[in-house]
Amino acid sequence: MKKNEVRLTSAEIANIWNTYIYDSMMESVITHFKLTTADEEVGVLLEEGLKVVQNHLQSLEELFSKEGIAKPDGFPVDKHVNRQAPKLFSDTFYLEYLNQMSQFKITSHATSIVMASRDDIHQLYKQFSEDATQLNKRVRTVMKNQGIYIRPPYMSYPKQVDYVEKQSFLTGWLGRRRPLLAVEAAYLVMNSINNEIAKATLIGFAQVARDPEIRSFFLRGQKVCSEIMTSIFEVLQEDNIPASMTWDTVVNESTVAPYSERLMLFLVNSLSGLGVGMYGQAMALSLRRDVAALYASFIAKAGAYAEDGVNLMIERGWLEQPPHFLDRERLVVESK
C-alpha cells in the first residue's frame, strides 16, 4: 500500500473531529469578543486568536474532504452568534479566556501528536501546537503588562536534598498535616483559577439564558464552582498560601444572549469535562491523602454536573454524535 493510501486510525479520526468541534466553538465565542472589545491591545490578540482557529478549521475541512469523512456541523458563526448583542464580559475576561483556551489547546494538541500514526497528522498537530503556544505567550505578556496575570505562589528554594522518613508523609486525615508539596499547591491554585473563570462564565450565561431549565443548570454550576473553590481555599489557607482573585466583576449588566443556548450549554459542558481531567491529573500527583480525596470529590461533582448537561443537550437534539465504530449486532438484525 502506498504511503498516501494509509487510512486514518480511529484515534486520529477522533482527534480531528474533536479539534474541529472545539475550534468551531472558539471561533463563535471569539467573534463576539472581537466585536465588543474596547481595548485595542486585546482586540489585536482576539484577531490573532480568531485567525488561528479559522486556519485550523480550514486545514481540517480540507482533510475531511480528502479522506471522504463527513465534516461536523460544529458551531457556525452565523447560526450561533448574535452580533448585535451588547458586551457581556469585560476585556479582562477576554484575555483570561484566551489564556485558558490556548493552554488547553497546547495540552490537547500534544496528546494528538503522540496518538498520530500518519506523518501528515503528526505534522498538522505539531503546527497547531506551535500556533497555540505562540498565542499563549503573547496573551500572557499582555496580561503581565496590564497587571492581571496570576502567578502560581512563590516558595523558598530547596537548599538540600531530603528523603521522606515517615509514613506520615502520606497522611492528612487526623493530627498535624505536613505542608503542601510545591506540585500540590500549584495544582490547587490552578484549579481555583479555573473554577473562578468557570463561575464567571456561568454567571454571565445564567443572566442571558431564556430557557428556564438551562438557566437553572447554569445557576447550579455556579454553586458547584463556589463549593469547590471554598474547599481549595481552606486547604491553601492552612499553609498561608494566597488563593486566586475573584472574577465575579468581569460580568456586565447585559441580559441579551451573545450566543445560542446550544453553544453556551456546550461550552459549559466542555469546561466541566476539562475540570474532570484536571482533577484527575492533580489527584495522581497529590501524595497527601486528604488532598487526593478532595480531588475525588471534585471529580464526582463535576462528572455528575457534566452528565446532566449532556442530557440537556440530548433532550433538545443538540448533541452531535462523535465518530463511532459500527454496531455489528444492529447490522445483523437489520439484514434479516
Q: Summed up, what is this model?
A:
This is DUF3231 family protein. By secondary structure, the chain is an all-alpha fold. It is built from ten helices and no strands.
List keywords for this structure.
single chain, 336 residues, mainly alpha, Ferritin
Explain the layout of strands and helices.
Layout: H1 10-36, H2 40-67, H3 77-80, H4 91-115, H5 119-145, H6 182-208, H7 212-238, H8 261-285, H9 289-315, H10 328-335
Give your account of this protein's structure.
The chain is mainly alpha-helical and 336 residues long. It folds into two domains: 8-145, Ferritin (Up-down Bundle); 177-315, Ferritin, core subunit, four-helix bundle (Ferritin, Up-down Bundle), CATH 1.20.1260. 67% of the residues lie in helices and 0% in strands. It is built from ten helices and no strands. Helix 4 (91-115) runs antiparallel to helix 5, helix 6 packs antiparallel against helix 8 and helix 8 runs antiparallel to helix 9 (289-315). The chain is globular and about 65 Å long.
Strand content: under 5%
The CATH class of the largest domain is: Mainly Alpha
| N-to-C CA distance | 35 Å
Mean pLDDT: 91
Sheet/helix structural class:
mainly alpha
CATH topology of the largest domain: Ferritin
What composes the largest sheet?
none
Count the DSSP helices: 10
The tally of beta strands, per DSSP, is: 0
CATH homology-level superfamily of the largest domain: Ferritin, core subunit, four-helix bundle
Q: In which range does the helix fraction lie?
A: 55-70%
Please tell me the total number of domains: 2
Which CATH architecture of the largest domain is right? Up-down Bundle
Low-pLDDT windows of residues: none
Shape field: globular
Question: Helices and strands, in N-to-C order?
Answer: HHHHHHHHHH
Instruction: Please tell me how large the radius of gyration is.
Output: 22 Å
